[in-house]
Amino acid sequence: MTPTPIKRAGFGLAAAMALALPVAAQELTIIRAQDSNHYDPPRTTAQSGAEIIFMLSDTIVGLAEDMKTIEPLLASSWDVSDDALTYTFKIRDDVSFCDGKPMTAEDVAWSLNRWQDPETKSPVRWRMGDVKSITAPDTTTVVYELNAPHSELLYQLAQSFGSVIDKDTYEVLGKDFGVTGFNGTGPFCWESWTPRDKVVMTRHDGYNWGPANYENRGPAQVEKVTWQIVPEAATRTVALLTGQGDISPYIPFIGYSTLRAAPNINVIKSESAFWTNYMGFKITKDLVGDVKVRQAINLAVNQEAMAEDLFFGEVEPAYSYVSSGALDYDTTLDETLLKYDPEKAAALLDEAGWVLNSDGKREKDGKVMEPLAISFTGEWQQTSEAVQADLLKVGIELQIEPMDSTVYWGKSATDEFEMYVMGYPYISAGDALNLYFRSANIPTPNRMNWNDPETDELLVAGSQATNEADRAAAYAKVLHKVHDNAVWLPIYHRPMQIGYSTKLAPFEAHNIYGAGLYKGLQLTFIE
Amino acid sequence: MSVTSTNVPPAPQTSGSIEGDVSQEFTAPARAHWLRRLLKDRAAFLALLTLALVILGAIFAPVLATHDPASNSRSVMTPPAWMARGNAEHWLGTDGQGRDIFSRLLYGARLTLLIGFAAVGLGGFFGSLLGLLSAFNERIDPWIMRTMDVLLSFPAILLALALVAVMGQGIVPIVIALGISSIPDCARVARGIAIGVMKQEFIEAGRAVGLSNLQLFNRYLVRNAISSIMIFISLRFGQTILIGATLSFLGLGARPPASELGMMASQGRDFLLFAPHIAVIPSVVIFIIVLSANVAGDALRDVLDPRLQA
Amino acid sequence: MISAVLHRLVLSVPVLFGVLLFGFLLVQIVPGDPAMVVAGPTATADVVAAIREEMGLDQPVLVQFWSYLQRMAVGDLGRSMISNKSVTSELGAALWPTLELMIGSMVWSVPVGVAMGTLAAVVRGSLIDRAIMALSVAGVSLPIFFISLMAIQFLGVKWQIFPFIGRPGPWYTAEGFMALFLPALSLGSILIGPVARMTRSSVLEVLKLDHVRTARAKGLSETRVILAHGLRNALIPVVTLIGLQVGYLLGGAVVTETIFSWPGLGRLAVGAIMSSDFTVAQGTIMIFALGFITVNLIVDILYSLLDPRVRK
Fold this sequence. Notes:
The complex is a heterotrimer. By secondary structure, chain A is an alpha+beta fold. Chain A contains 16 helices and 22 strands. In chain A, α9 runs antiparallel to α11 (342-351) and α14 packs across α16 (468-484). Chain C folds into two domains: 2-73, no CATH class; 87-311, MetI-like (MetI-like fold). In chain C, 79% of the residues lie in helices and 0% in strands. The chains are: A alpha+beta, B mainly alpha, C mainly alpha. Chains in contact: A-B, A-C, B-C. Chain C: This is ABC transporter permease.
C-alpha cells in the first residue's frame, strides 16, 4: 500500500475534513461509457461485454495487438488438417478456474459446444463456421471438426464468445451466469456487478498462462479492477484529469488534446484498430435506390473536414468500407473510392433526374429528396448532423431520427428508413463482408437489403478457401462490387485510443472487438 | 380531516378565499388598474419587456438570423465576438459543428416558447376544467381527484420518456407529456380556488333563485374562479419551459437540424471544458426566459391578489 | 385520526391499481423490440423470433397482463428482460442511492429555504426581503443541468474539492459522503426557491390570522409571534409543498443521476424505458407510485399533527 495518490489529495476539503479517500494503489478504476446486458460469453455481442469477459476468462487461442498474430492461450499448440476441416488443439494441463478447480479439455469442448448449441441462441453462432463436431477425446485434446473450411476460424475463436467457463457454476447459476456470478480462468475473477454502474473484479492469484504478447504472463499486477460507468462524455475526460479514474478508452475526441497536454495523463493510440463508422443505404427504397444518388451522397460528404473539425484530427477519414490495413484489403480499390467533390455530386443528381426546385431542394416527379436517417445519439448524432449539413449544400434535405442504442437495434431491423448508421469492429475484410453482405443476413445485419447471388457465392468461396490467394481474390471481387454500387457512405476509421494516468506504466493498446485493454495483464502501477 | 383531501389543501397564495371576498376582488375598476400597477413594478416591467423581446426575436427569427441555423462552417467552436479569437461574423460564436449560435438561439427560442405555450395551454385547459367540475360536483370529485393522484405519480420526465418511447422523438410527445403532467396541479389548484368560490354566499343565492347547474357553473363559478386560475397557470409557464428544456437536454426533444435551447445546451456539454460558451449561452437564455416568466407571474399575482400585499 | 389514516390507506388501493394498469399499458405500446435488444446488433431474423417466443412476447396482451398481476400480488416483480437480473434486486440496489440523494438534497435545502422565507416575511418589503425573493426566483429559474454542470466544472474540476463520478459507498462512509456532496448540492438547489417562497407567503398569510393578531395585540414581540404562532402554522403548506415536490425532485434526480453517474432509480427508470426493458420499467413505476403514495400519506399525517384544526 502506498499513500493516497497525490491527485486525491487535491480534494482539499476532503483532506481538511480528515476524510482522505482510502484508495490502495493496487486498485484500478477504469472509466467506460456503457454497460452490457449481461456477461455470458456466447450471448453478449456488446463491446462492453467483451472487454469484461476477456479479463474474466480465456479463449482457446489469443490474438496479439497487431490483430494478425494468433497466440497460444488455453491451447498450447494446434494442428490443422490438409483439407482444413479438422483442427486439433493441445490444451494446457496447468490451468484452473477462479474457484480453484482445474480446467480440462472437456471444459473447453463444453464451452464451445454451448456456443454453437441452438438452445443457447447465440447471435454470433455463424462465426464458428459450419461445425460438424467439437469433442475432447482426452483431458488435453480438443478436436474441432468442420463440414466446410472456415478460413477465419482461429481469429473467430479468439473472440470473447468462445471463452471457456466452468460447467458446474453455469449449471448452478443458469441464466444468472454472467449476471450474479461468473467462473472463468481469466487473469481476474468476478466480484460484483451493479448494472449501469460498475463491475468489480479481483486478481486471479494463480494465473500464469497469459498469451505470449504480454511480457507478464501472470498473475496480473493490480489487485482489484473497478469498471465504472460514466455516461457523460465530458465527465469522463475530467474524471481522468482529476484522478478519479486511472484509465479510460472512452474519451471523447475533443478531450484527447487536453489529456495529452496534461502532465498526469498519457494517451496511447493504435492505428491498427479495425473499427469503421459508416452510414448504410437501404437500397430497396425509392429515394436511394439509384446508384447515382448514392454516389452523389458519397461525393457530397466531406469526410476530411469532418475528421478535422468534428473529431479534431483524431480519426482517419474513410472512403473504403474496411480499413486498408485489414487482412485481404485490395489496394486496387483505392483509385475507385469516392472522395469529396460536390460539383460532381450535383452533376450526378441532375443526371439522375433529381433537379433543384425553387426552394433549392432536389426534386424528381414531384417528390422531394428527403431521405430519413436513423441514428444513435451522442457522437453519432454529431456525425449525422454534419452529413446533414453537407448534403444540404447539394440540395438534399436529410432527416435525422436519433435514438437510444437499445431502441436503435430494433428500429434498424425494419424498413422504415433510407439510411442508418453503424460502427463495427472486424478482424479482416472477410469478417466484415461476411457479416454485412450475405443475403441470408437480411434484414439485420444486412440492413441495406443487399441481395446478390454472386456476392453470396464469392463470400462462401472466400470463407472456404484453403489458401490465402484464393481467399483474397474472392473477397477483393466482393469489395469492388459493393464499393461500385455505393451501398455505404463510409465516414471514418476509428483508432483505438486510451487515456491513462501516468501512475501506470506505458502499455500497448489492443484492438480485439474494441476491447482496448484485452486481458489487463499489462496494467502496472509505477512504484 | 376530510376523507377526500388526500390531495394537498389549496396553497394560501392561490386559494380563492380564506377570508377576503373573491367576488369583489376582480371588480371592473380593479381590473382597469392592474395592468398599470403591474407596469409600475420595475422588475415586472423589465421581465415583461424581456419576454416581449424574446417572443419578437422568436417570431422574426427568419429575418433576424444572420446565418442558416442548420448550415455548418469550417470555423468550429468560435467563441463570441468579445472574447479572444472571436470574430464579428458570428457574434455569439459557433458550436461544435460550426453553426452560428445566435441564429440557432433565435430558432431555438421559437421552439422552446412554442413547447411552453402549447403545454401550458393544454394542461391548463383540461386541468382547470377538471378542477372546476370536481369542486362543483361532489359525486365526481373523488373520481377526478383519484385520477389526478395517479397522474401525479408520474413525474413529467418519466411520462415524457414513456411517450417518446411510444411516439418517437419529437416535440409533440414532449408537449403532451408536459401538458398532462401539469393537469393534476392545475386541477388541484382550480379545485381549491373553486371550492372557495362555492362557499360564497352568491352561490347559495344563485341556487336559491333557481339557476340551473350549468348557469351556476358558467356564470358564477367559472367567472369568479378563472382569474385566479389563469394566474396560477401563467405561473406554471416558467416551470414548464424549464422542464421542457431539461427533457430536450436528456435528448428527447426536437429532431435535428431544428434547434431547441435545451438541446443546444445538451450538445454543448461535451465542449464544456474547451468551449464553454456553447453550453453556457443557451443555458443562460433559458434562465433569462424562465426568470422573466416567473418574475412577471409573481408580479401579476401580487397585483391581482390584494390579500398578499404587505 | 387513526380511522382517517386507515381510510386513506384504503383509498390508495385504486390509485395503486391505476398505476399498475397505466404502467402496464405504457410499456405494452412501446415499439422498441426487447427481443432485438437481447439478440444484439448482428443477430439474424430467426434468432430474434426464437428469443421473442422464449420471452413470452408473442402471448396476447391480456394473458401478459394477468400473469403480471398475479406476479405483483405475490410481490414478484419479475426479471429484467435484458440482464435477467431480478427486478427486486435491481430496484433494491437503486432505491438507496436515490433516497440518499433526495434526503441529502432536502436536509440542507429545506432548512435554508424555510429560514430564508421566514426572514423575508419578517422583514417584508425591505431590501433583504427583495434580495431573498430575487434569489429564490433565480433559483427556480435555473436549469438543473446547468447547476450540475457548473458544480462539476468549478467544485469538481477547477478547485477539485469534491469528486463527481459515481457512488463509491453509502453516505456514512468517507468516500460515499464526499461523493454525495455535489449531486445533493445540485438537486437541493432546485428546492430552495419553492420552499422559501412558500414559507414567506404562508408566514405572511398566517400573520394575518385572528389568533396571531390577538397575540400581537397582547404585546408579544414580533419574533415570538412569528416563532410561536406564525411559523408552525405557516409550515403546513410548506410540508404539503414538499410532498408535491417529490415528483419534481425525482425528475431532477433523473438529470442529476445521469450527470453524476449516480446509480439510482431515476437512471434505472430512464435506462429501462429507453431500452424497452418492460419488467424493470414496470418495477420502477411501481416504486415511484408507492413512494408517492407513502410521501403523501406521511404529509397528511404531518398535516394533522401540525394543524390543530385538523387534529380535533
